[in-house]
């Protein structure tokens, strides 16, 4: 678990988590200065309303109606509500995403994000054990879809290319 929630400690604590859990640099690495800017801009361009992005960037786009209006909402749910929404959905991210690598944007506070490229299998541990961010965003490397969870435990799947039935089978407890 993250020991120190300061902006500078996030990277160090996640690195410790990866080392302790034998997660290789190939399976999780923070993006470099030029890489993260490019990925962040593409996330804004593909998923966030231009007016919202100009003022706020990615910061809480998942709570303030910041997503583009022409993007399809594939599926959404609030975790733990009605006993149907599973908290374990993120452990099954590789099944939902159908890709091996994704970009992960972790909210470091005050609208700042740490961006990483990682294996879908590593995302669950990073989010649930290493960091536990208030908000995070996951996208495929082609920016077809975006999965996000906000600080109200609402998970949203937007964009194109994800299978709704597969999502439901993973996210909804029977």
Shape assignment: globular
Mean pLDDT over the residues: 88
Number of strands: 7
Secondary-structure-based class equals alpha+beta
Helix % is: 25-40%
Number of domains: 1
Q: What is the radius of gyration computed over CA atoms, rounded to a whole number of angstroms?
A: 15 Å
In terms of per-residue confidence, which ranges show pLDDT below 50 for 5 or more consecutive residues? 1-5
Strand content: 15-25%
Terminal CA distance:
30 Å
The description of the largest β-sheet is:
7 strands, antiparallel
Q: How are the strands of the largest sheet arranged?
A: 1-4-3-5-6-7-2
Order of helices and strands, N to C? HEHHEHEEHEEEH
DSSP summary: helix tally:
6
Could you walk me through the main structural features you see in this protein, from its secondary elements to its overall organization?
- The protein is of the alpha+beta class and 174 residues long.
- The protein has helices spanning 7-20, 33-47, 50-56, 93-97, 120-131, 164-171, and strands spanning 28-30, 73-78, 101-109, 112-119, 136-140, 145-149, 154-159.
- It contains six helices and seven strands, in the order αβααβαββαβββα.
- Strands 1-4-3-5-6-7-2 form a seven-stranded antiparallel sheet, with helices on both faces.
- A hairpin with a 2-residue loop joins β3 and β4.
- The longest helix has 15 residues, at 33-47.
